[in-house]
Amino acid sequence: MQIIIDRKMPEEAKKTLKGYGDLIELSTSGITYEAISGHPDIFFFQSASRLIAAPNLPGEYFSILDEKKINYTIGHLPAGKKYPETARYNAAASENFLIHRTDITEKKILMDSEDKETLHVKQGYCRCSLLPLRMESFITSDEGIYKALKNRGLNVLYVSPEGILLPGFSHGFIGGACGVSDDRVFITGSLSCHRQADEIKGFMNCLGYETVELYDGPLFDVGSIIFLN
C-alpha cells in the first residue's frame, strides 16, 4: 500500500504509519502558503477509481506516481497561492455525494463525480474540515458543513476544531488529521487529547471502525492521509 502524507507529519506518527505501507512524503515550496504546502488534500482529490492531481504538483511526485503505477489524471487548474484558489482540489466525496464549494471545484473532479449528488457548501477547505465514512456518515469541524449535511438527512457528528494543531493558525480541522483505509480510521494524534474523545470513538465504533492513533499527542492537521491500495 502507498500512503501520501505531509512531510511535516510528526516523526512518531510516520514511524507508526510505516507499519501499514510505503510513505510518499509531500513537500512543496513557493506554490502555496507554508502551513499547507505539504498537505495532500491541497494537491490531490481521491475519487473511487483514481487520483486527480493539480498540474503544478512538483514533477518528482508525478515520477513517483508513475513508478508506483498509481492511477491518476491531471486537473486543469493549479493549486493556488491564496484562498480560495488553494482549495480547488479540497473536495470531499462519499459513495453517493460530492461535497465542496462548487464554484471553485476543479472541473475534472465534477466530471469524475457525475454519478454523485453534489452538495454545495460555503467552506472551500471541505476535505480538511470533513471526514467521510461508510454508510453516508461524516465527522466535521465546520458548522456550515454540519448544518448542510444535517439538512440533507445525513448522519454527521460535529467535532470542535479547538485543540487540533495546524502550525501558523489557531487550529486545524478533524478531516485533515485523519485518513481511512478499509475498516481503519487513522488519526494523527491521540483522541484522549480532545474533549470529545468519547463521542468520536463511539461514533466510529457504531460504524464498525477500528481507530489507529498514530502518536501520543494532540491531534495534528496534516492535510489528510491518502491511502492507495
Summarize the structure.
With 229 residues, the protein is of the alpha/beta class.
Query: Measured on Cα atoms, how large is the radius of gyration?
Result: 16 Å
- The strands making up the biggest β-sheet line up spatially as 2-1-15
Biggest pleated sheet: 3 strands, mixed
Low-confidence stretches: none
Specify the overall morphology.
Answer: globular
The end-to-end span amounts to 5 Å
Number of strands: 15
- Coarse structural class: alpha/beta
Helix/strand order, N-terminal first: EHEHEEHEEEHEHEEHEEEHEE
Mean pLDDT: 98
* Secondary structure: helix percent: 10-25%
CATH class: Alpha Beta
- Counting H and I runs of at least 4 residues, what is the number of helices? 7
Say which CATH homologous superfamily is assigned.
Answer: L-arginine/glycine Amidinotransferase, Chain A
User: What is the second-level CATH architecture?
Assistant: 5-stranded Propeller
Q: How many domain units? A: 1
At the third CATH level, what is the topology name?
L-arginine/glycine Amidinotransferase, Chain A
Strand content: 15-25%
